[in-house]
Write a structure and sequence with these properties.
11 strands; five-stranded parallel sheet; alpha/beta
């Protein structure tokens, strides 16, 4: 049985290790602490990350830096129109000496898989990721092969230069736990980037600050984070509201509900808490939900974005309080305590 002291010790280890990884990534990705934190949150929540932004802002660099910082096996897939599904999953080759087929693993068999320009491959090739991202396995010729742990797909795509690209199907987008835009750096951060990385590659001197086994232990610690009934209901209410909103023709799926719950548990753990607050849910609602939503034609004509709809839903949905449901929202060991500095408690 896991005691409160055990959870506290696990969270202390988590925050220490995660802080080392965060500092390592931020030494390369200048001036984007919120993006780095979201990437770590998705990693510890056992999710996958979609990085969508214009060229040259460090999308692929973020993925490669995260992978190198945690000493995991890495495979990079450059998605192109001629890429085949077997290039990703692997293929069975006949061995003439042994007179049998031998499976040759594809690029998906790595702990961190970087899918660069994922929307440049055909939907047939994109679908090769569906099973691996959801079930963490690959099936080929009737045989199932488990993928390593931890396992994370970090995919990039550009919202511009759309000629010759294939938009991600809804089923594919739904498998990404969160979407993030890196954005342009501030002038100060860009100047610092020139000073530090102007002559050499920022990855050349980067050393791993954690190992794959450490990440697996941190994932186990995140699973123990407590989510009170009012907060769970708050998550369900937010997701349900996307399914009936008049500006949306497709709301968030039940998978989105699970992803949001796992993400807020990871966010709480990174903040050093063994319980989730409504503020965690509010902070992650847009990154986790917005990329799954499809606005109606009228909403698009009115230039209403999915992020704006999520913000409106957050404003309209009642926030649970410490008295909701007759119990506390904090850790069961400390239920009923007032959380300082949190609205509504």
């Amino acid at each position: 049985m896991t005691t409160y002291d055990d959870r506290a010790s696990s969270l202390a280890d988590l925050t220490t290790t995660a802080d080392r990884v965060r500092r390592s990534v931020e030494s390369v990705i200048e001036g984007k602490p919120e993006v780095v934190r979201l990437a770590l949150t998705v990693l510890l929540a056992e999710g996958h990350l979609l990085i969508e932004d214009v060229p040259g802002v460090g999308k692929t660099m973020l993925a490669k830096t995260l992978a190198k910082s945690i000493d995991c096996s890495v495979q990079r897939i450059q998605f192109t129109p001629d890429l085949l599904p077997s290039d990703i999953t692997g293929v069975s080759i006949y061995d003439q000496q042994r007179h049998e087929f031998e499976f040759k693993p594809g690029a998906i068999f790595a702990q961190i898989v970087i899918g660069d320009e994922i929307n440049r491959a055909s939907p047939k090739t994109q679908s090769a990721l569906l099973e691996s991202m959801e079930e963490r396995q690959v099936t080929s010729d009737g045989q199932t092969y488990r993928l390593p742990s931890p396992f994370m797909v970090v995919a990039t795509q550009n919202p511009v230069e759309m000629e010759g690209t294939y938009p991600l199907p809804e089923a594919q987008r739904d498998r990404f736990m969160a979407r993030v835009s890196v954005g342009y750096p501030s002038p100060e951060a860009e100047l610092q980037m020139l000073d530090v990385h102007g002559g050499t590659s920022p990855l050349d001197g980067l050393q791993a600050v954690a190992h794959a086994d450490d990440i697996v232990k941190l994932i186990d610690a995140v699973r123990e984070v407590y989510v009170a009934e009012p907060v769970r209901r708050y998550v369900v209410d937010l997701v349900s509201a996307t399914r009936t909103h008049p500006d949306l023709r497709l709301g968030a799926s039940p998978r989105a509900t699970l992803h949001l719950l796992r993400a807020v548990k990871a966010a709480a753990a990174l903040a050093g808490r063994d319980y989730v607050l409504p503020d965690d849910v509010q902070a992650l609602a847009a990154p986790v939900l917005a990329h799954r939503l499809l606005p109606t034609s009228q909403a698009q004509l009115n230039r209403r974005t999915a992020e704006q709809v999520v913000a409106e839903i957050l404003q309209r949905t009642p926030v649970p309080t410490a008295a909701a449901g007759g119990g506390g929202i904090g850790s069961p060991a400390r239920a009923g305590e007032r959380a300082p500095g949190v609205r509504g408690f």
